[in-house]
Amino acid sequence: MTVAPGTGTARPASPDLLRSVFRRHAAGVAVITARGRRGPVGFTATSLASVSAEPPMLSFAVGTGSSSWQAIATGEHVGVHVLGEHQQELAATFARSGADRFGADTAWRDGPAGVPVLDDVPAWMVCKVVARVPAGDHRLVVAEVLLGDPTGHGRPLLYHQGRFNRLSD
Hints:
Layout: H1 15-23, E1 27-28, E2 30-36, E3 39-45, E4 49-52, E5 57-63, H2 69-74, E6 77-82, H3 88-95, E7 108-110, E8 116-118, E9 123-135, E10 138-149, E11 158-160, E12 163-165
Antiparallel strand pairs: 1-11, 2-3, 2-6, 4-5, 5-10, 6-9, 7-8, 9-10, 11-12
């Protein structure tokens, strides 16, 4: 494989290369929730993507070593929450291993299909899981949107260069 002049120094594929490249990619921040055997589970995701309009479907990736994986692996439904720039601490809580994600500081309620729904988010959806595709140490989850609410307030929270950010005008 040849590299075009002026494009820098190419490095072989590695986890570090992938992380370094994606640090330069700004991504929206979402929290995925589900109902586990021992209660609600959830995690912060920057891999949320629209898949299909007919029927409405989305995807996200989840690590098979994560504390949320078992509930996602066996459950039928998930909640998908688009976070606003005012929710950096919420995003950090759901990203932190061992955090009390559904403790007193997290406003949430039981939503449709028993899915935990976070309060005060710009938008949320409840989805039915239709596929879990192996992808290295993760699974790509494909889910069909059943219902949602896009009427919350706030500008989107972004993740870039290893930290949460806001849009600037």
